[in-house]
From TrEMBL:
It comes from Aurantimicrobium photophilum. This is Cytochrome bc1 complex cytochrome c subunit. Pfam families: Cytochrom_C, Cytochrome_CBB3. Keywords: Cell membrane, Electron transport, Heme, Iron, Membrane, Metal-binding, Repeat, Respiratory chain, Translocase, Transmembrane, Transmembrane helix, Transport. Heme c 1 binds at residues 68, 71-72. The cytochrome bc1 complex is composed of a cytochrome b (QcrB), the Rieske iron-sulfur protein (QcrA) and a diheme cytochrome c (QcrC) subunit. The lineage of its organism: Bacteria, Bacillati, Actinomycetota, Actinomycetes, Micrococcales.
């Protein structure tokens, strides 16, 4: 009798554990499936946005009227508070809205980067609407962002970009409260769009200034220095010749003085 009761209790415990394990596995499966579906749906939706679609353009026009027309005008013709967007192309909109610089929270020397206000689909719809108003620079394809020459990109970056952004892409101060932003962690598409459209105080590097291949090379260089920090040794904060000169002045000159004192003491 006791043996039968013990076996019955053990069976119930095993049954409960089996049921809990089954529920746990089902929950894990649902979470994993849901996450994978959400990621796939998001990627698919982004990839399938057709900027020439009348429905996408119409959606972008509605978003523009509700969020952008106060500064840029109902027809994007510009006002006293914001420039005309006719002819800026989809690349400019994708950069400004995709990085959170637009809509601006307040006027200032330049638009500050902040959390993005729109989904990727909404950003693309806004870009499609503005692009429909007049021809302009287009959002680059993925093939325009990959497999460039790091060495050539480094040379081009030092010649064209380092005077503002620093040779390591650490950014730097400009005049009148303006600044060149840090380039670490910036998506390749936004780097390309910035070169193509010249936001803020940045000059426009069209395809006559820098070819698409050269833009790709610069992006490859920036990717390399992000993945391989301090490739040349001690970076000293990546502040350039100022920090390097200070280092030599303090430690180099200090070592020379100490050596001179030691030699003088030994000779006496």
């Amino acid at each position: 009798m006791r043996k039968n009761m013990s076996e019955s209790k053990a069976a119930r415990r095993n049954g409960r554990r089996g049921q809990l394990a089954s529920v746990a596995l089902i929950l894990i499966g649902l979470v994993a499936t849901g996450g994978a579906y959400a990621a796939f749906s998001s990627a698919s939706a982004t990839a399938s946005v057709d900027l020439s679609s009348p429905a996408v353009i119409d959606e972008g026009q509605k978003l523009f009227a509700a969020n952008c027309s106060t500064c840029h005008g109902q027809q994007a013709q510009g006002t006293a508070n914001g420039p005309s967007l006719i002819g800026v192309g989809s690349a400019a909109v994708d950069f400004q809205v995709g990085t959170g610089r637009m809509p601006m929270q307040m006027s200032g020397p330049q638009a500050e980067q902040k959390p993005v206000q729109f989904t990727d689909e909404q950003t693309k719809a806004l870009a499609a609407y503005v692009a429909s108003l007049a021809p302009g620079p287009a959002i680059p394809s993925q093939s325009q962002l990959e497999d460039g020459s790091v060495s050539n990109g480094g040379e081009l970056f030092r010649i064209n970009c380092a005077m503002c952004h620093n040779v390591a892409g650490a950014g730097g101060a400009l005049t009148e409260g303006k600044y060149a932003p840090e380039l670490k962690g910036v998506a390749a598409v936004y780097v390309y769009e910035a070169m193509l459209t010249g936001p803020q105080n940045m000059p426009v590097f069209n395809d006559l200034n820098l070819t698409p291949e050269e833009k790709k090379d610069i992006i490859s260089y920036l990717t390399y220095i992000q993945e391989n920090p301090s490739a040349g040794g001690l970076e000293l904060g990546s502040l350039g010749p100022v920090s390097e000169g200070l280092f030599l002045w303090v430690f180099g000159l200090g070592a020379i003085v100490a050596l001179t004192v030691w030699i003088t003491a030994k000779s006496n």
